Amino acid sequence: MAVGATKKHAIESHSETRQAGVEVLQLEAEALQAVASTLDDTFEAAVEAIYNAKGRTVVTGLGKSGLVGRKIAATLASTGTPSHFLHAAEASHGDLGMIGRDDLVIALSNSGTTSELANIITFAKRFGQTLIAVTGRPDSPLGDQADIALRLPDVAEACPLNLAPTTSTAMMMALGDALAIALLRRRGFSSEDFSVFHPGGALAARLKRVGDLMHSGDTIPLAKPDDKVSDALLEMTAKTFGVVGVVDDAGRLVGILTDGDLRRHMATDLLSRTVRDVMTANPRTIGAGALAQEALRTMNDIGITSLFIVDTKQQPIGILHMHDCLRAGVA
Predict the structure, then answer these.
(1) What is the pLDDT of residue 16?
(2) pLDDT at 199 over 60
(3) What residues form DSSP beta bridges with 105?
(4) Quick check: 216 and 239 in contact, CB under 8 A?
(5) On the CB side of 245, how many CA atoms lie within 13 Å of its CA?
(6) What is the pLDDT averaged over residues 165-180?
(7) H or E stretch at 103
(8) Beta strands in 192-267 (DSSP E)
(9) Domains and CATH numbers, the chain
(10) Alpha-carbon distance 286 to 292, whole Å?
(11) Rg (CA), the chain
């Protein structure tokens, strides 16, 4: 009996633990909805101020707000807004020099009363830098001194003690993302621009272009429609892609010859037939500017391992093998 009671208690404990997690996520989701519903002209003013700033955007905060500030600064920097983080406590010990005369300051504090921000506020007011506050209390010292105050809704923390920063930091983080993406759109920031700031890792692989990975020049296996299949087979074997592109007299890609085509037309006279007789016409192609991820998806969708890259005149300028994408980390 005691064993059964213990198991029942364990099951109930797991259920309660899961429910606690669900409640936190629901509270934070509701808080984010509240932020979205309260965005007003001050948000637009903040975006315009950051967009028009001649210098960098300096994000500052302390404690959990400081940790959020680091992330916001990193997101801004990676999406086209030059930015860095300034620790509020270190600012009073020489790091105020990190704020340039043409910079803009974003200060994070839910209460708006963080004493360590006082010197930063004074510095910004003295030298005329625009000060944007992100705070739950626009009537606080920070909100009162800010040129633009972005207000966080008055929502209780998900912490049952209403002490640990949870919903407040979730709202700050989301508001920072909203600023960064609004600025990204305002600047017309493209995936090409994004890749410049993300040259390494999985994200860089996702942003690689077909033209970055393709084989070009003499490595492209090509044949003419009237060539003998035997000659095309030698070209296919020499170039090792398992396919030959078929080009007309104008250099346009009009077909491909694959090992599958050879098997389907297997006969005693196969090698003496012309490429035109056994090729696949109007093959799928892609442009050099397309993402390698798109090329890989195309190859997977139609069950091929190589894809020809053509220019605007449908002339082949390269070939891409599935293994090229996989080696580059594209998946």
Answers:
(1) 85
(2) no
(3) 58, 131
(4) no
(5) 28
(6) 95
(7) none
(8) 222-223, 243-247, 253-258
(9) 2-189 (3.40.50.10490), 210-327 (3.10.580.10)
(10) 10
(11) 30
